[in-house]
Write a structure and sequence with these properties.
Helix content is 55%, strand content 0%. The protein is mainly α. The protein folds into two domains: 47 residues; 65 residues, no CATH class.
């Protein structure tokens, strides 16, 4: 797989400026890069609490700013949805990493909810049950 030219400092500045206002797809169109290049830059630059948010075509919003467990729970639930979408779009080499982050997010949500349902008992998240069966290679 060929890699494109590195993101320039000017492009990084533009990504910083547009992050939170436009989707990753729109940012990519503006700077003439792929969405995955923009996603990688967002992750590398440490923008936002959930870089997976950039994988969606929805404008990137600022974090909800909640404090305590309820704010963290809302952020984690949002991240869970974004990771689920990213997992469906992920290539074969990315699936283990995204799946691991997805499982860790679900586990943290369950801890915050004081236990949770556990695998096989959550009808709202059949994908999570399937992912729990996939071994993770370290």
């Amino acid at each position: 797989m060929a890699w494109g030219k590195p993101i320039t400092s000017e492009e990084e500045d533009l990504i910083r400026e547009l992050y939170g206002q436009l989707s990753a797809t729109d940012i990519a169109s503006r700077i003439g890069r792929s969405r995955s290049a923009v996603y990688s830059a967002i992750k590398r630059l440490g923008l936002g609490p959930s870089c997976a948010r950039a994988m969606t075509d929805v404008p990137v919003a600022a974090p909800n700013g909640g404090t305590g467990a309820s704010g963290r729970l809302a952020d984690l639930e949002e991240l869970r949805g974004l990771l689920r979408a990213a997992l469906l779009e992920a290539g074969p080499q990315s699936i283990p990493k995204v799946a691991r982050e997805y499982r860790e997010t679900i586990a943290e949500i369950e801890r915050l909810r004081d236990g949770g349902d556990g695998p096989g008992k959550n009808e709202d998240n059949p994908l999570g049950d399937i992912l729990a069966l996939i071994p993770v290679r370290a």
